[in-house]
Amino acid sequence: MLKRALAIITLLIIGYWLAQGLAGVPFGEDKMLVGQYYLDNVKEQTGAVNAVTAVVVNYRGFDTLGEVTVLFIASTGVGALLWKRKKERTAETQGSIVLTTGTRLLVPFVMLFGAYIFIHGHLTPGGGFPGGATIATAFLLLYMAFVQYEIPHKAFEKIEGAVGMAYVLVGLIGLAIGGYFLFDWIWQTWSFGTENIGRLISGGFIPIIYTIIGLKVGTELSGIIDNMVKEEVNE
Amino acid sequence: MSALTAIGEVLVLLGTFFYILSALGLIRMPDVYNRMQTATKSATLGSLGVIIGVGIWALGTDFGSAAWLTKTIVIAVFLLLTNPISAHALIRAAYKSGIPLWEGSVVDKYREHIDAKTTETETPEETPEEGGEE
After folding, report:
1. Residue B129: pLDDT above 70?
2. Phi then psi dihedrals of residue A87, to 5 deg
3. CB distance B134 to B105 below 8 Å
4. Using a CB-CB distance cutoff of 8 angstroms, which residues of chain A are in contact with residue B92?
5. Which of B80, B83, B85 has the most A C-beta neighbours within 10 Å, making it the best mutation to test the interface with A?
6. Nearest-5° Cα angle at B116, B115 to B117
7. ipTM confidence score
8. What global pTM score does this model have?
9. Is residue A193 within 8 Å of A184, Cβ to Cβ?
10. CB within 8 Å: B88 and A98
């Protein structure tokens, strides 16, 4: 009781302190310094209509590489923590027939939608991470509905590594052509799709990077799910 | 205000009305199964009304295009397919985990079915007791 009361009082003090700090920040006013630059130049410099993905992939591409690395480390860490010599799925009850049939019908559409999200990263909200998570959701659905289902490990682990390398490779090509890492060579050097701003074939290397990230995130999260639902079996 | 706008507005109103009904059902109904019944059915219908209604409403305005209606129809079909399946899975999981029926329930054929199965195979399975603890 005393512990709980102390915790509540501490949280209230911290909350009041944060609110005091935030009270000095004016809302609803134009406070953009760098933001205005992004909004003014995003179309000419990157070809993307979606300013967020342009910032994430083009202006601040290095952070995205870091995020992908974090995800990769998370996936590897889960794999290392839950490593057992022999693991199998030990789920006992198959999903009901309604669930399995529904899953069978839905999974292709969920995957299609995930691919749609990451291919259209430069046009619509979303991008590689939501798209990849949607694809992983399709695999989660398969895991939940079927007792026996397992992802094709060989292919998944290879795709995961290959697309991770592809991201770095795209950045290194930029380094070779434009002078710095993750330089958008497709847009800046080739001017590919410059007349097409707002359509699918535009946006420099944003669609390419996001396809890479989408595949990477999708396979990684599926791998994490796979590690988590399996249990050790003793012979 | 064109006819399309009016139709869309009426559909959205109907949809929100069904949303209210489904929220009411959540409060009013006595047990999990009845609640799921009201919540899923009327919420699905309400969502369909609102979603399709927004698509048609947008057609009637000057900024609207057919893209709105296409997108809303895709969303509506997806919802129409997934909502009953999720409700089915939830109810089945609730029954399997032993949540009792409402005390006023008179017949539970599913339990009889499970009992008949378990006497055949001689492997007793946990089934929820009839008659709830309210």
Report:
1. no
2. -125, 140
3. no
4. 96
5. B85
6. 90
7. 0.76
8. 0.83
9. no
10. yes
